[in-house]
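Below is a typical protein record.
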Amino acid sequence: MDVIHFKSAGIEDENLYSYYITEDQGYLVKIFCSSEYLRYNIPFAVVDGLMKYLLELKDKKGVDLIVYGDDGEKFGVWPGTNKHVYKDGWLRKFLNALRENKDSIEVIAFSEALDNIQPKGKIYIPNASYREMMEWVLPLNERKKYEEVIGRLKDRDDFNLIKHFLVGGFWRNFMSKYSESSDMYGRMMQVSKRLNNLKKKKKRFEEAEKKLYMAQCNCPYWHGVFGGLYLNHLRFATYKNIIEADHIIEKQIHKKDEWLRIKTDDFDLDGKNEVMISNEKLKFFIKPSEGGMVYEMDVLNKGLNVLDTMTRKEEYYHKLILEAVDVEKAEGSESIHSVILAKEAGLEKEIVYDWYRRKSFIEHFFTPDINLESLTKNTYWDKGNFINGEFEFSEKKRRTGVSLILSKKGFIYNSERNSRFYLQKEFILTQNSSSLNAKYLLRNDDDINIQMFFGIEFNFALLTGESEDRFYRFAGSKKLLGETFTAENIENISIEDQWIGVRFDLIFDKKARIYALPIKTISQSESGFEKVYQSSAVIPVWWLNLKAGESTAFEINLNVNEI
């Protein structure tokens, strides 16, 4: 475990060089303290300096062993380390130095340590993680305060004596800092509970259990100096395993080939209910407390959550982008924690923040001057209060399907006063269908006319916008998912991914103007600041001209086709 765990338990520096016994519910566990010094200096420090440190440590009283355990990526994967570790010979020098000093420095395995060294004693470890993790998890404003305090204290002579008291936050709060992490965790826990409740040790569930465990890899659930949550391929793999495990369970529960259900529960563990509607092909999760949006859409046979999107939010490190150097110029002798890299120049000009989550069936009310540039830069004025508002909802059983009706009595903001406005949307799913039907009712509940554009935002997360096998088709045109464009008088538009083998068709009962733009985050990973494609936003808009008391209706079909 990291040194911070031991220091948080009150272990003094001179007693860190061994292992301890701890206990929980009567079970004993032996725990080793990983050296922070070695973690930071291997493979970055000069070999002679490392040998001097180890030899001096050997002669100190109470030093039984020093433990090194760290990321294998430091040996060739992190920027500059391949050249530094192998081509420049750092690893060979280090191993040769250990061989030359074998009479003074003995390299042993953990099992040998347990056989030959007595534990220092018994301790109880508090909740903690390594120091950087507890810094990264802090909300933006708290991180700023934390760094300010550290900046004032780090020049003190006694800083090394007090720094372990200056811990940040609790690592599990990544799931409160990032809704994407919370959604993924909640979905995983839902599948885990379903699997446990079956209480059957049958082979048909072994595969589901294996996939569930694969979905519990920690990498996609957090973010710091490593890309983690921001890396779409990590989330993609996690959701794929979650969905495939869930699909195995569904097929065992529903003995027939066809099923249809609607369920209300707190799926994302935020204290508010969501609604799931599903059949044997598709599964939708809708959030009435947040604009009635669809926040997850699973294509079950593909193990695909096409709404595995990422909201662009301000990160503490964004202010450092101007200080970043080109990744090609990075020197492997510097730790990833100290060097600031960038994969390309000018990233600071492309930072955009979202004030709502990039999901689907999100309703916008735009002023007449709305355009592609203002949508891309998020500089437009949305005149409604529906996007993050709470919707009332009710379930409705149909002869061949189920539906969810969501409604909100809200407002349209204008310069004179807020105008009362009513919005209702109904999602309809039928058995053995690969289509979600959405019916909209808009009504002007005020005594003045309302004129504006009404738009419905959809997002499609398909890993990349630059590949030739992922594209839009509409009105005889074809464009890559990474392109930005406007199209007029569109009756339908397709989003196709030939690599996954799926096509989404949006079909409108009234011709629409389409705005399409890629959503990209500027985030940090071990290879530097980078631009990561997260989704393609498709926003059909219609002009509204509603007199007092007037209403209008729209209908949209979202078809999913396996190809």
